[in-house]
Amino acid sequence: MNDATIFPDELALRSVSVGNIAARLQEDMCRSMFNFNEFSPGSKHICNDLENLPQVLKSNYYEAVSAIIRSEDIPVMCGLDEFHRRIGLIRLYHQSFQLGITIDPDVPWDLESRCQIGDDSILSVDLIPNYPADWFPYDKAITSEPLLGGRALNRAEYEDFYFLRYSRKDIDKETRAPSSEKDMLMSKSNGAEGEFDSLLAWDILHERVKRLKEEGNKALEQKSVHLAARLYDKALSYCSIAFLGYPQSNLDFLTSHQTLLSKNSGHCTRWSKLLKTFISIRLNLSMTLLKDSDILDTYTAYVQASLALFDLRPFTSAPGIVLTGKKLQKTREDEPIATYQAAKDLQAKAYFRLGSAKFLVGEYETAMQMFERCLAATKDIYPDRKPDRVVVNRLAESTRLFANQKKKRRKKFKSALQGADDT
Questions:
Q1: Average pLDDT estimate for 380-392
Q2: Cα–Cα distance between 320 and 361 in angstroms, integer?
Q3: Residue 191 belongs to some domain of the structure
Q4: Statement to judge: residues 124 and 236 lie in one domain
Q5: 208 and 314 share a domain?
Q6: CA 83 to CA 62: how far, in whole Å?
Q7: DSSP letter at 151?
Q8: pLDDT of residue 164
Q9: What pLDDT is attached to residue 122?
Q10: 205 vs 408, which has greater pLDDT?
Q11: Given a cut of 60, is residue 20 above it in pLDDT?
Q12: How many structural domains comprise the chain?
């Protein structure tokens, strides 16, 4: 059985407790309750829950890995790599089925090449695999040691079935989709044929993330807030491959970057296009979750903005300085001034999102503080610019409402004291 590997996008929604006996007992009791319902995703019975299939598979894999960590009986006979490959295949087939396209069983993650020209019903970003873990570990353009991917079918014994179901159909070159951005990136690579190029892997990752962000922005402009939130969330799952620490994987282009993250307590201390895009997506998702009552989620909006501030912290202390080290107590100098300006601009947006979230839940004192920090961050880089009218108005409104809150509290407290004196 291989060592356990969990990519960030494979964390199950339901937490699996490790080492906590009380939590384990509570979880086992809940699971036993689920098992009474044969149609529950937590049931031991098999059910055709296609709508929630990806989440069920995610939970299945997480359960298998957790069993290994807890030294329990392993719930699968094959190795984890093989189990992971099968789950990835099922999810990719499920995604292609929902889109109404065929799939190449040898390169199942390459959905873009299977879509024909003129089909406007499918967004290009919907052809990006929903789970990076179903694509990255198997693609030789992403890793120098790709795992065995695709279909593992005994063609000798099941030849008729294979050609009926999974054989690659010849598609006229004129009707096939144009070369994907990945293909174009690979053609521009200067490396020798067959030689792995880590810079190319970074470019492929950033190109996909950027496309998802741009489509999310378009959806937001068209007031499709649900679609925008989904695209931003998908973009963040790809960003997590680069910016979250996880035990191990075969994605060797991330090795030095993961080491850097561990040395700086999870902070990325290298300013890059991908990091800037990552932070922007967090702030866009935060804005989306505050924009419409139908999708309003002030807590998650606040969390996303807070995480953006965490990522920005190394770059916002002073011009030309980057904070490094376990507690960010060290400094690196000679950082371009443009880095500080870009980071402070994003910091101002993050504070505005935090203030907006607190304003909506009636925490006006905290909202005031966040709006004041927003104005201060902007003033640091644009000292001669007039304050943003929207922020100024929101600060004034928060100040007024906080004063009313204080007045009501004093009145209530005074009434309580008078009642006590009467007794």
A1: 95
A2: 38
A3: no
A4: no
A5: yes
A6: 11
A7: -
A8: 55
A9: 84
A10: 205
A11: no
A12: 2
